[in-house]
Amino acid sequence: MKLKDIQEFRQKEKKINDPVNNPLHYNRKGVECINAIEASMSNEEFKGYLKGNAIKYLWRYKYKNNPIEDLSKSMWYTNKLKELINVEK
Fold first, then answer.
1. Of 13, 67, 72, 73, which residue has the fewest beta carbons closer than 10 angstroms?
2. Is residue 41 within 8 Å of residue 31, measured between CB atoms?
3. CA-to-CA distance for 41 and 4, rounded, in angstroms?
4. C-beta of residue 30 within 8 angstroms of C-beta of residue 21
């Protein structure tokens, strides 16, 4: 196996096994669900959506089998909100 092949395999494997940053069930026909949601909302609505999801994952992390994953998801939504607000400045 060539180094390039190994690197490509690892990239694909990472995408498959990343339920926080790239869950496969949120991508259909090359469209990420988060992008479709953003396109369907105003900036203010989308910021509210991001804030709500960050709170949701913080709220429930103690009651799930994988609290670190829920905390990571909360951070993902918080970071996305931060990026959006930073771009508006």
1. 13
2. no
3. 40
4. no
Q: How far apart are CA 48 and CA 83, in angstroms?
A: 14
- Give the residue from 25, 21, 20 showing the smallest Cα distance to 69: 20
d(CA 11, CA 22): 12
| Cβ–Cβ < 8 Å for 70, 55 | no
How far apart, in Å, are the Cα atoms of 2 and each of 7, 45, 79? Answer: 9, 47, 36
In the structure encoding, which two tokens stand for residue 37, read together?
């949601």
Asked whether the predicted pLDDT for residue 12 surpasses 80, the reply is no
Radius of gyration of the chain (CA): 16
What tens digit of pLDDT does each residue of 25-62 get? Answer: 777 788 888 999 999 999 999 999 999 999 999 999 99
